[in-house]
Amino acid sequence: MATIKLPAVLVGGSSTSEVEVAGETVRELFENHADEHGPELRDSVVEDGEIKEFINVYVEGTPVDGLDADVPDDAQVRVIPAASGGR
């Protein structure tokens, strides 16, 4: 199983959390996570069948271009919303 590292802003907590989820692609990870934990994460990351514009997903430290990216067994997946603001 892969481990998804989730920032607090996406899961409504006060710190980053980790959860193990089965799946061979990024899409399967988010769908399986939704089945087990509810749709909030998937809905925060995916829109119209694509990763949202201001969300970055990394598999083993490599940015992925889409939901069909392969996820090796025991991979670490990070979901990071883009930061904005400031002057």
UniProtKB/TrEMBL annotation:
This is Sulfur carrier protein ThiS. It comes from the Archaea. SUPFAM superfamilies: MoaD/ThiS (SSF54285). InterPro entries: Beta-grasp_dom_sf (IPR012675), Mopterin_synth/thiamin_S_b (IPR016155), Sulfur_Carrier/Prot_Modifier (IPR052045), ThiS/MoaD-like (IPR003749). PANTHER family: SULFUR CARRIER PROTEIN CYSO, SULFUR CARRIER PROTEIN SLR0821-RELATED.
